[in-house]
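Example complex used in Figure S2.
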Amino acid sequence: MQVGLYWLALLASCIALAVAAGAAALVLAKPKGSGRMVEIYEAIKQGAKAYMNRQYKTLMAFIILLAVIFAVTVDYFTAGRSGSPYFPYTGLSFLVGALFSALAGYLGMSVAVECNVRTANAAKSGLREALSTSFKGGLVMGLCMVGLALLGVTLFYWLWRNPLLFAGFGFGGSLVALFARIGGGIYTKSADVGADLVGKIEAGIPEDDPRNPAVIADAVGDNVGDVAGMAADVFETYAVTLIGAMLLGWPLYTKSNNVAFLEYPLILGAIAIFSTIIGALTVRAKEGGDPTSAILRGIVVTAVLAIIGFSLATWQLFGHLELFYSALIGVVIVVLLAVLTDYYTSYRHSPTRSIAEAAQAGPAINIIRGLANGLESAFLPTLVIALGVIGAYLLAGGLSDAYMGMYGVAIAAMAMLSIAGIIVSVDAYGPIVDNAGGIAEMAGLDPKVREITDTLDAVGNTTKALTKTFAIGSAGLAALSLLLAYMNEVASYKGMADITKLTSELSLASPKVIFGLLLGGGLVFLFASFCMKGVARGAFGIVNEVRRQFKEIPGIMEGKAKPDYAKCVDIVTRTGLRGMALPGALVVLSPIIVGFAFGPYALAGLLIGCIVAGLALALMMAKGGAAWDNAKKFIETGAFGGKRSPAHAAAVVGDTVGDPCKDTAGPAINPMIKAINMISIIFAGLIVALTLIP
Amino acid sequence: MQVGLYWLALLASCIALAVAAGAAALVLAKPKGSGRMVEIYEAIKQGAKAYMNRQYKTLMAFIILLAVIFAVTVDYFTAGRSGSPYFPYTGLSFLVGALFSALAGYLGMSVAVECNVRTANAAKSGLREALSTSFKGGLVMGLCMVGLALLGVTLFYWLWRNPLLFAGFGFGGSLVALFARIGGGIYTKSADVGADLVGKIEAGIPEDDPRNPAVIADAVGDNVGDVAGMAADVFETYAVTLIGAMLLGWPLYTKSNNVAFLEYPLILGAIAIFSTIIGALTVRAKEGGDPTSAILRGIVVTAVLAIIGFSLATWQLFGHLELFYSALIGVVIVVLLAVLTDYYTSYRHSPTRSIAEAAQAGPAINIIRGLANGLESAFLPTLVIALGVIGAYLLAGGLSDAYMGMYGVAIAAMAMLSIAGIIVSVDAYGPIVDNAGGIAEMAGLDPKVREITDTLDAVGNTTKALTKTFAIGSAGLAALSLLLAYMNEVASYKGMADITKLTSELSLASPKVIFGLLLGGGLVFLFASFCMKGVARGAFGIVNEVRRQFKEIPGIMEGKAKPDYAKCVDIVTRTGLRGMALPGALVVLSPIIVGFAFGPYALAGLLIGCIVAGLALALMMAKGGAAWDNAKKFIETGAFGGKRSPAHAAAVVGDTVGDPCKDTAGPAINPMIKAINMISIIFAGLIVALTLIP
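Predicted assembly (1388 residues):
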């Protein structure tokens, strides 16, 4: 019965891509508007493409080098060990994964760029039209990411069967996503922070004002950072979660000879795609209605359909529902995280209001209060995820079979990720309407257009915070299942039938494990510091450049002279690209060095140390940043003196500090903790064979 | 040969206390000055005593309640299990530990208060006299803390022999230190930040200006927060490290019947006390000479003498030097941490200068850059400690005997702590000269007096950063040895002859351990958030109150009307006391809840999760804060526009944000990670017996 069910996944991913293509055609058929709008669109398109091309070109040599290294090390080792003929499995799948991830980012960026201007234009005819255009753009992205990831993994599974052979696909995806998050994140926040600091605060001109020389860099940044980075990130999380679940299904499959353990994650993905397409169809707003409810409806319909489908599929495949309960836990985690995020970041609740209130005593107290809330907001989501791990493990039958327990954790992660399609649609919609508003401002459209995009944008802010917590939570759960997969690989390379044989080496009382744990915690902080530093450097450059242009270009403030936009684009491009080197090297080299020098068990400690510290730090940064942002927005509604009050000025400082936290360092930690786990899985065999400390 | 060598420790601790008393008499014999100086001294003394009394009174009921709980739970359990007659070992030793810790804090505060005014007075006759007075004050404190801790532990050892029976002494010390750090830290930083924000920034009056209504609260805070908090903290670290080492020595003792394993840590403490007294005698500055070299000389002489003594004692006791190498590693860690701290926080080096440079682009970039550097500065110290753990484990012979390895880690921690006496002398000297400067300013003394205290204070800033890293590093290492002791207790209560039998339960692949690890990371963030929130709340209150007084009291700015100092003291007192409740409850309850609900292995995960995240976060906060402070000081030397430039204003915001990081949340994490381990050790038996999940 089970054999061949993965064709369902192949079908679903093709349908996802076809629907995405259809929606893209619908969007592209809409008019771009005219005049200044098109000019700006062209400038953004050109800037975004130029950056993406340079980013990928910069990475290409590195990616090819890594692929060759994998092919001549890991793949030779695998062939030698199994006695099968040599084939560059890891090198090849790594290349394809990197390519797919790059494609995902590129597609995301292109769709967004095309969609921004059309949404601005559609907003001329009202809210309904604007929502429909922007949401379609988001949907294209969501379906593309999920479709590409499912397609890639299913194809490799069809060809090679053994998930360990195509683990490289996941790492390729992770690595490119990592670079996209870092480079794009530094780019977008350098431009954003720099533009705001001089334009809004010093010169007192509005956001997105065309007199600001950094305004084009800022608009480009939104597309290459928030959108392309997020697209590559979701693609890779989906792909590595699938692979992680299959890796943990492998020992169950070899024991039971039941391929369902390998194909079940694929089936979950397929079911969720069908649910997503139906759910997306329900997203329609009436003119004057509340777009929030339309969007939430889409998510709820998708989740409910997916849950029903999961239960049927689980029963069909296994004859019992144990694994379905684990999958259900994954969906429940998403809901709980969403509620917590709303509580900690929306200004309807006290935490964010307290930050706004603190702004009355100046920027320092505003920032201290925001840091305090950020730190606090890391706790409950961590508790939810920790409880989720225990629950998924136990419900899957972990008490009687540790392998089933671990598989349950991976299935919870996969269930969470399976609905990423609809979540991305909603997330991508945010930057699209934001940019549409920017274009409307820059092109000097009727203020009513900006009002409509602002209404949509307010919804976007809520959903953006939701998706960020989704991204971190799913990254944490995915990374944990990768960690378990890594330990399984080590056990298997050690020639142990059972992972429980390894436990004396993986004990918390082992100095190697303690060493790894401590180092892993420190590593995440170091990684985050590189990201923050990149933004500090880039924004500093932009501030100086914008100040210079305001001073040296006569007539610029009167709108008579055109600012030198290209110069600002150039600064952030260089900072973004330069900023990728150190954190990238850190992620690739540290597990390899620790693995070979201190052994596979120290490396296991390092991996979970990264997850523990990374989860807390990423949550703190994402939520703290969002809360600062919304505290400022709360003041802008008239609280504590409203716009232009001292409290507002203080809140702007907090918002600016939060920017690189929530949009650069925080999100970059997600691919980081997965990439570091993936490379460890790939090198596990070699590390076991060649380490200095066994 | 070995029996009775602990008399050496008894002797050393008595000598330490006697020398401290002698030094105290010398300081008290010096004149306090006259007039306004004495008035201010009286006000500070009264405020500090009032706060300390209220703090201890608030805690008393809680401490007694806990002692009773220990006596009727843990002690009954122990008696029932061993079949020996009931005696409230834990309850009693806990009470004594709390009392000693409170005494340490009270003594520290009193010495500082008496010393501040006398140092200000001594500065009238020059640098040499001022250094001698202030350093003597520091020495009194250093010797008292170390003497009290060694005395307490040695007495209990003499009476009861089994370290597990007096583990309560360590927890009592930890708990009071925890509250002192939180309450005192919130007090001092609320007052400091609030006073600076309105006084320095809004009203433009100098620091310590008597027209500022918060100035007395600020001066009181320096004594109850920085000094008393630090004193209680060092006392407890010393005590728990000793107890931790003895707990890990216990299984070695029962195996070999060699009491040296129990007494060796006491001997190390005794040797270091003799070395400290000799080292302190070498601290003398020539008039016009550099006080830094005098102070460093004291530390170096102490360390060298201690190392020589350690090697002789180790050879004498064990006939080989293996454990000496572990001890040596402890001392080497201190040196490396000192070098790293200097690199990351002194403005002679690029990291701090880069923060100052970033201030030119405004407060936001200054803070982003500071956050980035703080995150980065957590990495290398973590690496040093992680390598130290492996080194101490291996050198002690951990490869052939895991118990020797774990004991080696504890010995490294003990060696590190043994020289705490000289480190505290140097640390306490900092706030004393700082306060002396404040008194000179408030009393309107000759500007030359302030110049001398400023010279001494500049040195104090370097040494303060050193000791903070020392405190965090030693706390990390101490907490790790407590964690190992906890796991040993669990193994022993489980009736296992050997800790390695436990390992399948303590494996990183166990969902309980993963649950604990994740939760532990989140817990530290939550704890830090409570501390930061306390400061935000208190500072907010002070800002409003000072603004009100400036507005409502006529003639206050002209110095004609006296501000209402008491009102500000009252605000920070209430905030400080109120701020202790939640974090205190968190530390006491979370290990108990997790232990009983999720079992002793989930709790082990929680403990190390706390250490991993706590170490990184505490390092980040301590160093980030110090770097912001020094970046501001660098600008004040004339860089980037100097005082009153926009860069300076921006740097002041960064400095203010850093204040609660480096002086409240960061230092509070140290006792937190030890207290949470200590209570777990105490409850280990009950948890093993009664947990829901075995």
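Chain A is about 85% helix and 0% strand. The mean pLDDT of chain A is 91.
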